[in-house]
Amino acid sequence: MLKNQNPTKTIAWQKLQKHYKENQNFSLKKAFQKNQNRKEDLSFSSNEIKVDYSKNLITNKTLNLLVDLANECQLKDAIKKQFAGDIINTTENRAVLHTALRDFKANKIEIDGKNIIPEIKETLNKVKVFSDKIISGELKSYANKKFTDIVNIGIGGSDLGPKMVVESLRYYKNHLNTHFVSNIDGDYLQELLQNLNPKTTLFVIVSKTFTTQETITNANTIKKWFLSQEFGTKKEDIKHNFVAVSTNHKEVKNFGIDKNNTFTMWDWVGGRFSLWSAVGLSISLSLGFNNFKELLLGANQMDNHFKNTNLKENIPVLSALMSVWYNNFYQIETEIITPYSQYLEKFVPFTQQLMMESNGKSVDRNGDVINYQTGNIIWGNVGTNMQHAFMQLVHQGTKMIPVEFIGFEESLYGNTDHHKKLLANLVGQSQALAFGKTKEKVHLELKTKGEIQKINSLLPYKIFTGNKPSTTIIVKKLTPKNLGNLISLYEHKTFVQGVIWNINSFDQFGVELGKELANKQLSS
Ligand code: F6P
User: What's the CATH superfamily of 110-292?
Assistant: First the structure.
């Protein structure tokens, strides 16, 4: 169990409130003028990831107080308990051990006296053997043909994680075409099925519970299509073309899937943290097992950084504390994540589920209604596209919205011209947000351009107030290992926020009522 501590009752919280009021006039411009080394002083790295917090509205005192808050909320103890397999998801009486799935060095992690490591190794090996055989063509379809297409059928964590990774690491992909079906929208499914050949398509049904309406409806429609007369297929053929990842082996069997083609999951892995388990089967199938393993190793690197680095230099901790600072003291409700890589287009939807399903809670660990802000609204899109969409509001609107920029030092194909421009835009945006453009500068610019007659009418519209916060994450290159690091960073950031907000980040009862009412609607 984690400590039950209302954060607003801590000494650090009171001090932060006072500090926030005293710091109203904080200016990023002045802070940089005063300390030429601000960027270096407020940048931290781990393996191939560097994070620059210098463009946040913080002083050393802010950071110290935020770290005090984390200490008063017993964050270190919480980290230890999570990694050790304590039952920290108390409402569901579960441990939270997605980190064990990527800990290749661990020999023993126990839940209720049972070592879970042998099962993890066995399942991972099953993923390896299966994906190797599908990729090489050794394992064939019911029609004795090599597979050309994979369809992942799942929703939420059983879709977003694998889809995001497969899309993000497209560069490393093999010959298998990979498709994802999540929505219950039958038209979308029809469009996909029209272009698939049952003789060469492998269906991977991913559902922890194997009861999720969308997934089971889609899977049943696909099964019906697969068994339709025109293909001449029989029930026994299902075992060649359908596999499942689930904890519910009974329902998987009822669906007609072979035991050998059933990949197990565990209740101590939450859906939104599950891509590291057999839920990542589509990742291993489309990128090859070695790349899947690299992803896991990368996540483990960030786990070790998170576990072993002191809080003041700990990247997931600092990133979480920045959110707490803006959310709870500035009363800012939203946060932008913007990767400067088209490959990472699905990263924002993935982090939306991760952070909003985890921390969208209003009852604390004691069962009491919370009287302070918790989970932020996460949104964003890839740069540079978003510069031409929503950034106007961030630069000149009335709201303050902290931004997290993510960039890669190197491009994958080595197109330096494009890549320089991509990164220059990232830097340009963060500078514009932080330092803005003064009235004097706008005046001078219009004058230099010979547009003196326009000064009176245009000047106020061209001013950028600046002093808008952002964090910049720079990763060396988009590799499976570095993506693993990055995802793990956001997972731990989410966890730290939950610890401080005194909530359980690992249940999701808020998704239930809508499902119930939809079913009621259907039966009425
Ligand atoms: O949206 C609720 C949720 O339970 C998610 O947490 C989960 O990732 C998703 O539904 C899918 O659940 P399952 O894997 O059991 O089909």
Answer: Glucose-6-phosphate isomerase like protein; domain 1 (3.40.50.10490)
